[in-house]
Design brief:
Length: 263
């Protein structure tokens, strides 16, 4: 996801923190530092020389065959340099590792806030055409690629704007209302059925499988090269985008509450 997606995930997560979760965030990130304000830090860090090691942690390249057959195989798909599943496992453990410096624990939590968002973007759980980066499309006539549209253009259109407090507040509140009493109210318990920070790798693999399945259901069904996405493709995608962002936010809130309970 781009900045709006990550900030929305973090804003939704913040809404679901219990008292222990709120105090955990304040202790680890520093007083007054919001989850939304650090949610895209990992995307800046990965392009620095110090942060290059973390670039593979944003995705898992599932070598499946969409749209016919989808699936993630951790042994096959998580390479020696790591992937989003191993990163969530590593940083879940590091966030609560009292033997690490406060700054390393903070960085671990910032990575988690980001990766629990990225893992719900279907194309971050897919190897095909480099997660869609190599599928040329147009967005309102401008040349781009399928991955970028899922990360940014379609999210901004669904949110009603680019990154601003007003956009984040309205988009987050809309999705929170659907979680609490709307179309997600019966699904939400299933989103956090894996909530044991001691089995983070199993949970993250289940989350990757869940998002990867959407590549067969919708994301990679329409893959004629150069297609215009700002039309019927967007209309079909928006329910999945909202679902995945709501899911990431609700899960992240529960994960932080679980980290706080385990600390
Ligand atoms: N690091 C990490 N995960 C690990 C070990 C290290 O992300 N399991 C990161 C934290 C620092 C960098 O590597 O950004 C260097 O770590 P250290 O400070 O432990 O040398
Ligand atoms: N930052 C962060 N977590 C870190 C390092 C940096 O959230 N572990 C944020 C704080 C600043 C920005 O990234 O807003 C730039 O930080 P730096 O000066 O450390 O590169
Ligand atoms: N990406 C991905 N799978 C890959 C490579 C990249 O999901 N195998 C994601 C990470 C970024 C986007 O695609 O969100 C663009 O990556 P980059 O800037 O590395 O080209
Ligand atoms: Zn991306
Ligand atoms: Zn990312």
């Amino acid at each position: 996801w781009g900045v709006v997606g990550h900030a929305t995930v973090a804003t939704i997560a913040t809404h679901y923190l219990n008292d222990a979760g709120k105090s955990y965030i304040s202790t680890k990130l520093g007083p007054g530092v919001t989850m939304a304000s650090v949610a895209s830090w990992a995307d800046n860090f990965r392009y620095t020389s110090a942060g290059r090691f973390s670039a593979p942690f944003h995705f898992i390249d599932a070598e499946d065959t969409p749209p016919t057959s989808c699936g993630v195989d951790l042994t096959r798909d998580c390479g020696p340099t790591g992937c989003v599943v191993s990163a969530i496992n590593n940083y879940t453990s590091r966030a609560n590792d009292a033997s690490l410096s406060a700054s390393n624990q903070k960085q671990a939590l910032e990575f988690l806030i980001h990766f629990i968002g990225d893992i719900t973007q279907p194309l971050h759980d897919e190897a095909e055409e480099l997660g869609g980066n190599h599928i040329p499309v147009t967005w309102d006539g401008t040349a781009t690629n399928l991955h970028s549209c899922w990360d940014t253009q379609m999210v901004e259109k669904a949110a009603g704007g680019t990154n601003s407090t007003a956009t984040l507040t309205s988009f987050s509140n809309k999705l929170i209302a659907e979680i609490d009493g709307g179309m997600y109210s019966s699904a939400k318990d299933g989103w956090i059925s894996c909530d044991n920070v001691a089995t983070a790798s199993d949970c993250a693999l289940a989350w990757a499988q869940d998002a990867n399945a959407l590549n067969c259901q919708y994301v990679l069904k329409a893959n004629e090269t150069g297609m215009e996405l700002d039309g019927s493709y967007y209309d079909g995608a928006v329910p999945y985008i909202e679902l995945q962002i709501a899911k990431g936010g609700y899960r992240l809130g529960a994960w932080v509450n679980a980290l706080a309970a385990a600390a």
